[in-house]
Amino acid sequence: MALDGIRQYSAADFPSVELTQTQIEQLSWSIRGIVSPEKAFESDPAHMEVKRCLARLFCEQQLHSLEGYPAFTNNQPTTDEYSPALTQEQYQKLSERFQALDDIARSVLRVSTMVSSVPLSPKARERADAVLGKDNYTLDSVEFLADTFRNIQHARAIYPVVEELFQAHPEHEHARITKLLQAAFPSRQHYRHMMYTEGNQTMFDALRERVQNGSIDKESFDFWRCHWTINITGFRGHVDPHGSLYLTSNVFEAMMALETTLERLFTEENVTSQVLLNDYLDKRWQDFLKMGDLPDREITISEKRLLAHIGAMMRLYHPDEGQALLEGYRFIPKTLMKELSQAYFNIPANNEPTPTFAPALYENGIDFRKKMLKKEDGILRQVEERFFGNNLKKKADSLVRLVAIADVVVGVLPLNLAALKEYRNLRNQDKIAATQPLSFMALANKNEVMEILGESPIFKRFNILTHTHISIDEKGSVALAPKLKAKDRFKAPKPIIHRYQLRSNTMIEQEVEPEVEPQQRMPLRRGIKV
C-alpha cells in the first residue's frame, strides 16, 4: 500500500526524520497512483513529491546544527566551475538563521513543508471543493495554498497535518501558529519568482504593500524566507534526496542578493517595486555576470538589466555565461529587443500575475542543446569519447554549455515573447481568468523542447515560429500547435539573419543559403562576412 511504501522508504533512507501517521497520510496525497508497489518506490515518478518532501525535512534537520554541513552538501558537485558546492561559511550563515527558530516555529515549518508537497493534488482539490466551493481557487500550486490558508479554519478543515498541529499546542499559542502559517503562504509573494525574475516589478508589490500597511512584520518575513529556503533545498530532491542537490553556492548568493534587496522594505518607508527590481538586477549583472566593464556606449544600463533579467530566468551566475548570454542577445533584432524590454518591464494595466515555469523551459533547453551539440559536432564528440585528460574534457564541456546558452537565447526568447503577447491578448478578452498565470510547464517538457531546439537556432538558423505557432488554453498553459514534424524543418524559406551591433545601433540583415556550412556564415561582431 502507498502508506507502507512511504513509511518503509522514510525509515530506510531517512531514519532521523520521524513521521506521524497523519503526516504519512498527508504525504500520500502527493502520490499520483492509488496503489504503489514498494519495490518500485525509488524509481517510480509517482513518488517524486514524497522524495522532495523527505529531502526537505532532512535538510531542515541538518540546518539546525553546524555539524549538518557534510550531510547537507553530500550530493553537490565539487568540480563544476559553473556550479560550485555550497561552502561551509555559506552553510553557517543559513544554519544560524534556523538555529534561531524556537520549537513552535520549527513545528510550523515542518507542517508548511509537508503541505507544500500536496497542492492541487486530487485529494487537496476534493477537500478544497468541499470547503471553498467547487473550483473556487486558483489553478496554480502556490496560489492554491494562499487561497486555502487565507482563512485558517479552512486550512484546518482541508489539511490533516494543520489540524494535528493545532491540536498539539495549547490555545494560547494558536494565534502565533496562525500568523506563521499564513506568513508561509501569502498570495502573490513567490520567492523563487523574485529570485529568477520570472515577472516584472509587480512581483514585489504584494510584499511591499504588506510591509507598508503592517500586515507582515519582521518575524513573519523571516519565517517566510526560512520556509522558502527549505523549499529550495529539496527542489531537485526527486533526483537525489540525500542532501540538497539544488542549494549550491550560486543559489545561496542569489538568495542573499535578493534578501538584501528585500530588507530595504524595512528600512526605507517609500521604496518602490521598480527600485527593488532594479537593485536586484544590478547585483546580478555587476556581481554575477560581471558586465560592469562593458562601456555604456556599447550596452546601456537598461540593456544590462534586461540581460540580467534573462540571465536570472536562465539561472546564469558566471562571467563566461554572461558573455554567452550577450553573444546570443546580439543575434536578436533590435525591434525584438525593444519588445522584450517593454514586455518584461512595463507594468500591465490589469494586475497581471507572474508567469510560471519559464526558467524550467530555459534550463531544459540548455541541457538539450548541450546533448545535441555533442552529437552534431564531431570534434566535441571525439574529445568526450577518446580523450582521458579531465582538463581537456572540462574545457570542451564548458564550451558546449556556453554555446548552448547562446542557442537558447536565440531560440527561446522570441517564443517567450510571443506567448506573453498572446496571453495578454486572451486575458484582456476575458478568455483567461484574471488570477490565472501564464504557464510554460507543458512547453518545458522533453518533447516540446525537442521541437523548439531540435536544430540550432544559430548554426542552422532554425526558428520554430516559422513552422508553427503557439496556443494557450484557459489555464494559461502554453503549447505548440500544430506539432512540428522533423521533415518539415528544412522547407522554410531562406531565413533572414539579424545581427544587432550594440555599439553603432545598426541592424545588418542578410539572406543565408541553407546549403552553406554554418561555420562559414557565422555573423561577426562588426558585420557579416562571407
Automatic annotation (TrEMBL):
Residues 511-530 are annotated as: Disordered. Pfam families: DUF6829. InterPro entries: DUF6829. It comes from the Bacteria. This is Uncharacterized protein. It comes from Candidatus Berkiella aquae.
